[in-house]
Amino acid sequence: xxxxxxxxxxxxxxxxxxxxxxxxxxxxxxxxxxxxxxxxxxxxxxxxxxxxxxxxxxxxxxxxxxxxxxxx
Length: 72
Hints:
Oligomer: single chain
Low-confidence stretches: none
Structural class: mainly alpha
Order of helices and strands: HH
Distance between the termini: 36 Å
Shape: extended
Helix content: 55-70%
């Protein structure tokens, strides 16, 4: 894990907590993209097409998560 904190500012317990949090965010996003939007089965192969489709999928995922956070 890369951090701007000095080694003495982050003990082993805090480092582990931050590391797990970072991986939890990463895994949560990729799980949504892979399962819900079938990101791994994408037929687009050009770099520009992959970039555009990836940005669109992340935008849709972010909008949905924001919408869901405001539902009762």
